[in-house]
Design brief:
mainly beta, 2 helices, Immunoglobulin-like
């Protein structure tokens, strides 16, 4: 019997058979009944206020009075994987009695089977996503949650992995962390499909300053953080417990960006969608995320395009690496008045490589790889060191080159080549076996000094790589000075097969590619071939073997 919270207490007494948290069956109608023990009259009314977890407002529902019992039957479709908060207000004349309140509601926690606890939208076909499970699963093992929906584990049909922050490696299937709300995973499924689990709704487990949150433990370094709730959340609604101190998004706690994945590249968002997850970088140990139980309608991108900035002390250029439809995007270099030569808060961390995806990141001495690298204003120039992974044959595209101050230009040193960059000529192809690059921006004198330092001192024709080959090989050569170069392939009889280069080339390191075809584009037979270069007074020939 409940008698607390009555206003006044003397005339009205009610009874409610229920606890502050009750488990109900998913999708099943539920009758809510309150008995008026004393004080009933013709003006007796009852209102049941309900809202799904995460909603900001309650829906009032009139209760029906039969003799001394007020009742209302809640439709089964209200009991989904979000659960329900509710309170009841009973009024007889001037007397009021409450069961719960808007600030301290009672809870209906939905219990569901595996079929009911499924992700509402299917995963796309053969496309990686960062996912989570917003359900308190009956069993927390990876195999129990996923194998019954996806089939016996076969990484040619579906593949799942978590991230280990301490080793900075991915852990596949059952080596990954147990499945709890807030834990994220990579998942790809051939043919698409859904996953889910039997269990109950996720309820807040922390209250701070009268607000309900769900606590998720985080590691030092990169974390795959999933949305623990079955509704979208705002990143601004996330607080942090820093070793016992509740605080906001301090720069000493985290790199305040979250990285989702759209199947081809990372995307920075202002929240986390239901059933999805993100990468976030935590800068110290002993930090937990406190995720507020409040739904938002939409989650959107936060990374703005690179805009025109005329000031010499405030400009940026973006770099995008794309290989085979997969990309590493939102990489920024530039100048800011508050930046340092080394690492500072302007320099955001580069997230771990997406599965099979390329990676472009900036290398700062003494720091982890960065997605952004801003420098203090300079009058002469600066050099940015770039690391590349799985980039061969890909395209680096520069956007915002016209932001560079007047009197300065940009060059990219990539393998054996130096490429001038302009808004019209802003794409550069990455050669094979190239894992590093340098972006040089500065005055003509600064560029000349740095380019000369990078130029070869003597001519050389290198052995092709690989050798033997099938059917593609790379032929490298270095030019100490600009000049006309002819590079030609011959068969063992001395007959010309194809001309790879016949043009003026700048000084520097160059690579020609032979795809095992003749001048007409037809594949040639296996055997010994020769390649010959003519450059100024140089005339040199090497042998190679095509082996099919």
């Amino acid at each position: 019997m409940i008698s607390s919270g009555l206003q006044p207490y003397s005339a009205l007494e009610i009874s409610y058979v229920g606890s502050s948290v009750m488990t109900v069956s998913y999708g099943t109608d539920r009758a809510v009944e309150v008995t008026v023990v004393s004080g009933t009259g013709a003006d007796t009314t009852g209102i049941l206020y309900t809202r799904p977890f995460g909603a900001s407002s309650y829906t009032p529902r009139n209760m029906t009075l039969t003799q001394n019992i007020l009742s209302h039957t809640l439709a089964g479709d209200l009991f989904d994987m979000r659960g329900m908060e509710y309170y009841i207000r009973i009024t007889v004349g001037a007397d009021v009695a409450m069961i719960g309140s808007s600030a301290t509601p009672y809870i209906f926690n939905s219990s569901m089977n595996n079929e009911q606890g499924q992700r509402p939208t299917a995963l796309p076909n053969a496309s990686y996503r960062i996912i989570g499970l917003p359900i308190n699963a009956t069993s927390h093992s990876v195999s129990a949650v996923f194998d019954d929906d996806m089939g016996a584990y076969d990484n040619t049909q579906w593949r799942l992995a978590g991230y280990n922050a301490s080793t900075e490696t991915y852990e596949e299937h059952t080596d990954a962390d147990l499945v709890y709300p807030g834990v994220g995973y990579w998942l790809i499924v051939r043919g698409g499909g859904t996953y889910g689990s039997a269990g109950t709704c996720v309820l807040p487990n922390v209250t701070y300053s009268g607000t309900n949150y769900y606590r998720v433990e985080l590691d030092y370094g990169w974390n795959m953080l999933a949305n623990p709730f079955a509704f979208n959340i705002s990143w601004n609604d996330v607080m942090f417990d820093d070793n016992g101190t509740i605080t906001g998004h301090g720069t000493d706690i985290l790199d305040d960006e979250i990285h989702s994945y759209n199947g081809s590249s990372y995307t920075m968002l202002n929240g986390i969608r239901a059933w999805e997850g993100v990468f976030v970088y935590i800068k110290k140990s002993g930090v937990d995320a406190l995720i507020r139980c409040r739904a938002v309608t939409t989650v959107s991108k936060t990374a703005p395009p690179v805009e025109k900035m005329n000031a010499r002390d405030n400009w940026a250029v973006s770099l995008r690496l794309e290989v085979g439809g997969l990309a590493d995007d939102y990489n920024l270099i530039g100048v800011r008045p508050d930046a340092l030569v080394g690492e500072d808060y302007n320099d955001h961390f580069e997230p771990p490589s997406a599965p099979d995806g390329p990676r472009l990141a900036f290398k700062i001495e003494g720091a982890n790889l960065k997605r952004t690298d801003y420098r203090p204003p300079f009058e002469d120039g600066a050099v940015w060191d770039i690391g590349l992974e799985r980039a061969a044959g890909g395209m680096i595209t520069f956007n915002g080159l016209d932001n560079i101050p007047d009197g300065m230009r940009a060059w990219l040193k990539l393998g054996r080549t130096m490429a001038a960059l302009t808004e019209q000529d802003n794409n550069v192809t990455v050669p094979e076996n190239v894992t590093a690059a340098q972006l040089i921006i500065g005055t003509e004198k600064y560029l000349s000094d740095n380019k000369n330092a990078a130029l070869p001192e003597r001519f050389a024709l290198e052995q092709n790589v690989p050798n033997p080959f099938n059917p593609v090989t790379n032929i490298g050569f270095t030019l100490p000075n600009p000049g006309h170069v002819k590079l030609e392939v011959f068969n063992i009889l001395g007959q010309s097969i194809t001309v790879l280069t016949d043009e003026e080339l700048p000084a520097g390191y160059h690579t020609a590619v032979w795809e095992g075809t003749d001048n007409a584009g037809y594949s040639v037979a296996s055997g010994i071939y020769f390649y010959r270069i003519e450059y100024g007074q140089y005339d040199q020939t090497r042998k190679m073997l095509l082996l099919k």
